[in-house]
Design brief:
Elements: E1 11-14, E2 17-21, H1 28-34, E3 38-41, H2 49-57, E4 61-64, H3 79-89, E5 97-101, H4 106-118, H5 123-134, H6 140-148
Parallel strand pairs: 2-5, 3-4, 3-5
Antiparallel strand pairs: 1-2
GO molecular function: phosphatase activity; protein tyrosine phosphatase activity
Pfam families: Y_phosphatase2 (PF03162)
Domain Tyrosine-protein phosphatase: 9-162
C-alpha cells in the first residue's frame, strides 16, 4: 500500500490550486492523487531529476519560472516572475495547478501573497498566511514586496470563480 505523504509546506490555496516545496519520491503518490495538469516551479535552480521524471511520467506540464539569471537567489522574486505566475494561476484551463519552489516558503509565499491581494484580502491576513509557511525564516523584503505589489499590472479575462468570492 502506497503512503500518501504531502510535500513540505503543502497547502491548498483554492479549489484545485495547491502550494508546497519541491517534492521528493516519498511525496509522488500523494501528488498523483491531485491529478495535476500543471506545476509552476519558482526556484532558480532546476528541479531534481527524480521530480522531472515524475512530472514527465504523469504527463504534467512543468513551467519553470524561477530562472532569473539577473538576480541573486537571496533577493525577493522579481515582479516579472510574479506577474507571469499569476497569469497562469488566473487561467482556469491550467487546473488542477500546483505552485512550488524549493521549500515552499518565500517565492511561493510571495506569489500566493500577491494572489491574496488580487482577492482583496487584508494585509494582516496575507502576512499571517505567509508567516505560517515561512516559519522562523520570514523575509521582510517579501512582505514589503507583497504590500507594494500593484495588482493593476495583472491582466486576466476568465479567472477562476473563487477569485470573485472574497
Amino acid at each position: 500500500m502506497a503512503h500518501h505523504i504531502p510535500p513540505l509546506n503543502f497547502g491548498m490555496v483554492a479549489d484545485d490550486l495547491y502550494r508546497s516545496g519541491q517534492p521528493n519520491e516519498l511525496n509522488f503518490p500523494f501528488l498523483e492523487k491531485l491529478q495535476l495538469k500543471k506545476i509552476i516551479f519558482l526556484a532558480p535552480d532546476d528541479p531534481s531529476q527524480q521530480f522531472q521524471n515524475f512530472v514527465e511520467d504523469q504527463d504534467i506540464e512543468l513551467i519553470h519560472l524561477g530562472m532569473d539569471t539577473h538576480q541573486n537567489p537571496w533577493n525577493p522574486i522579481s515582479e516579472e516572475i510574479v506577474i507571469s505566475a499569476l497569469k497562469i494561476i488566473l487561467n482556469p484551463d491550467n487546473y488542477p495547478l500546483h505552485i512550488m519552489c524549493n521549500l515552499g516558503r518565500h517565492r511561493t509565499g510571495t506569489v500566493v501573497g500577491c494572489l491574496r491581494k488580487l482577492q482583496r484580502w487584508n494585509l494582516t491576513s496575507i502576512f499571517e498566511e505567509y508567516r505560517r509557511f515561512a516559519g522562523s525564516k520570514v523575509k521582510l523584503l517579501n512582505e514589503q514586496f507583497i504590500e507594494l505589489f500593484d495588482t493593476d499590472l495583472v491582466t486576466y479575462n476568465n479567472a477562476p470563480q473563487w477569485l470573485y468570492l472574497s
